[in-house]
């Protein structure tokens, strides 16, 4: 019998943390080795599966060093500041990381790249198979609709989301720009208000909707003269992100240090 993947979950009482704990407990090849939350979290001291009405034997704690000593992988869906702290600890302990957190700035992305020289890391703003297949469809559409089509990306998420545009929307913009031989930072338009003037040719526009319990919707519009193409992905459950994260863990188990994404995990590159 092979040793199960020993996985620590950061942000254990968050929306994704709970989904991940349920997924790990339900996977025959995985064990929950630790569950982390912030030092001031009311969840500290509780069993990590209490929210399921179950007992896992793992208590939610705030001591990252102790958590990582028992773990081979850390799955992190928290906030950029938290992820960066966990990242340095993972390097110290030689623990592989799956990072789902979004909203990193350039310096934080560079820190993740540097850490990936020492440990294997999967970093992706969206772990679902469907979204990553959608990204491939966007590559094709962006190449074929290079001339004469205006591109707009609209995303909608629940009222608790703190970053905008979503990491997925930004990734869609990057994929589209790259497929057209451009850089997103040279053509992105994130805000329109007041007298905006006409739409600049070649812009990639973003619009954000926040409200209710929307899990995550993304639509990319290619708006031409006489027609428009819309490519939409809608998430109806966070379980897809959790299952994608476990696929990333299994992938990392076979890899040396390096920075990977879900295209690598799913063989879509
Ligand atoms: N890649 C993907 O497929 C997906 C990515 N995401 C991303 O994952 C992240 C988390 O989303 P979600 O679960 O909805 O968020 P939640 O706010 O529900 O959960 C975040 C968790 O992280 C904890 N946390 C916050 N700040 C820190 C910190 N500085 N150090 C350690 N822990 C911290 C929170 O603790 P506390 O409550 O005490 O603040 C909470 O337990 C977001 O960036 C989101 O965009 C979400 C879904 C899918
Ligand atoms: O915060 C969320 O909920 C989500 N965040 C990710 C993002 O920013 O793209 C992925 C998904 O859309 C859900």
TrEMBL record:
Domain (Dihydrodipicolinate reductase N-terminal): residue spans on this chain: 7-127
Catalytic activity: (S)-2,3,4,5-tetrahydrodipicolinate + NADP(+) + H2O = (2S,4S)-4-hydroxy-2,3,4,5-tetrahydrodipicolinate + NADPH + H(+); (S)-2,3,4,5-tetrahydrodipicolinate + NAD(+) + H2O = (2S,4S)-4-hydroxy-2,3,4,5-tetrahydrodipicolinate + NADH + H(+)
Residue span(s) of domain Dihydrodipicolinate reductase C-terminal: 130-266
Gene Ontology cellular-component annotations: cytosol
This protein's UniProt keywords: Amino-acid biosynthesis, Cytoplasm, Diaminopimelate biosynthesis, Lysine biosynthesis, NAD, NADP, Oxidoreductase
Intracellular or extracellular location(s): Cytoplasm
Residues annotated as catalytic: 157 (proton donor/acceptor), 161 (proton donor)
Amino acids binding (S)-2,3,4,5-tetrahydrodipicolinate: 158, 167-168
Location, primary (coarse class): cytoplasm
One Pfam family hit: DapB_C
GO MF terms held by the record: 4-hydroxy-tetrahydrodipicolinate reductase; NAD binding; NADP binding; oxidoreductase activity, acting on CH or CH2 groups, NAD or NADP as acceptor
Domain of life: Bacteria
PROSITE patterns: DAPB (PS01298)
Top-level enzyme category: oxidoreductase
Residues reported to bind NADP(+): 38
EC number: 1.17.1.8
Recorded metabolic or biological pathway in which this protein acts: Amino-acid biosynthesis; L-lysine biosynthesis via DAP pathway; (S)-tetrahydrodipicolinate from L-aspartate: step 4/4
SUPFAM superfamilies cross-referenced by the UniProt entry: Glyceraldehyde-3-phosphate dehydrogenase-like, C-terminal domain (SSF55347), NAD(P)-binding Rossmann-fold domains (SSF51735)
GO biological process per UniProt: diaminopimelate biosynthetic process; lysine biosynthetic process via diaminopimelate
CDD domains (UniProt xref): DHDPR_N
Binding-site residues for NAD(+), renumbered to this chain: 11-16, 37, 100-102, 124-127
Complex formation: Homotetramer.
PANTHER family: 4-HYDROXY-TETRAHYDRODIPICOLINATE REDUCTASE 1, CHLOROPLASTIC-RELATED, DIHYDRODIPICOLINATE REDUCTASE
Functional description taken from the UniProt entry: Catalyzes the conversion of 4-hydroxy-tetrahydrodipicolinate (HTPA) to tetrahydrodipicolinate.
Protein family per UniProt: Belongs to the DapB family.
Name of the protein: 4-hydroxy-tetrahydrodipicolinate reductase
